[in-house]
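TICKET #2291
ISSUE: user wants both folds in one file
ATTACHMENT 1:
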Amino acid sequence: MKKKTREKITDLTLAILDGVLRLGDGTFNAFVDQRTFYKDLHDAEFARNQIVDRVRNLIDRGYIEAEEESGRSSIRLTRKGKIKRLEKITDNEIDGKWRFISFDIPEKLKALRLRLTRSLRRIGFKPVQKSLWACPFVKADEVDLIVKELGLGKYVAYFVIEKTDIQQHLEELFSEELER
């Protein structure tokens, strides 16, 4: 797939996930009328058939849940969709705090551990040590979505701190991101 096509699909995916959230009054559990949603997103910059096809794909992949009631179709983000949105957003707001996640996941759950670390990387975390990861971005506060989706709560600890004795090391690790 060409890079430009992939970027357009990524842009549309993020626009859909954000649109569902925005029209749902910022709550993840609110269903949104599909007609209203399509009109709002079509007015943005995407063709209706692209939107319909992508929404159908996101429903099939479990990122969006559809509901039909009284002849009206509604959609909302699933937890998996919330995670996808979190991984795709590029808002790297920094507030001077560090987010740490530490985990000790048994070897029998290796596949889940790999999914966790892949998602952590996508939202901006970097490994400080083997099972200790850090991130300066505010959006990382939503990491609990990933932990809950994977069912790893009893193996994971999450911290938000303002001061650490490894501050210099973290600043070097995130030097490119902190310069922006």
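ATTACHMENT 2:
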Amino acid sequence: MKLYTFWRSIATYRVRMVMNLKGLNPEVEYVDLLKGHQHAGDYAAVNPQRLLPSLVLDDNGPPLFQSMAIMEYLEETHPNPPLLPKDARGRARVRGLCQIVVSDAHPLSVPRIRNYLTRTLKVSEDAMNEWVRHWQVEALKTLEALLARDKATGRYCHGDQLTLADVCLCGQAVGSSFFKVDVGQFPTVTRIVEAAQKNEAIARAHPLKQPGAPAEVH
């Protein structure tokens, strides 16, 4: 299988974490989002939405797209280690935590949104960054409240085993830090992210450990 990826893509970071946890080592192809390579004809033919990630399987079928769909596909086809709880209520909780990140917060910070704000609506760079930070903080506040109050929270988001919720939470924390959000103000989130990042498969997927990444994000 082939994964289209880029160090700065938080959505692809989520997929890398799952692939690492499941021991998958795909061929990779880099698409530089910051240089607009996602709009080039070759990649547009792979994913008409021109977003990362895309995953091409070995069956010669159409590429998979959208990180949550890819992660659930990998969970179904490579069930070990399991990243969803066995019970329906637990799976719903984990998916709900994931959706706060992948549906509500992350889409408001991606390059196409930032570029539309600054280039089309002529919003200043400072105002655009404040917009992003506002929605990142709102998501983190909600995640903190849910994780802190619920007895289902353990070492990780759901009990003491890693789930897709931890994958999404790590993505949220790292993505927020790129926009200078102090994630440390959310103690339960911080505790869980730090615990998850001690896992070698999670740590190895970090954006700043990918080819082409800077030493730090300014």
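RESOLUTION: both attachments delivered.
EXTRA DETAIL ON ATTACHMENT 2: Residues 125-149 form the longest helix (25 residues).
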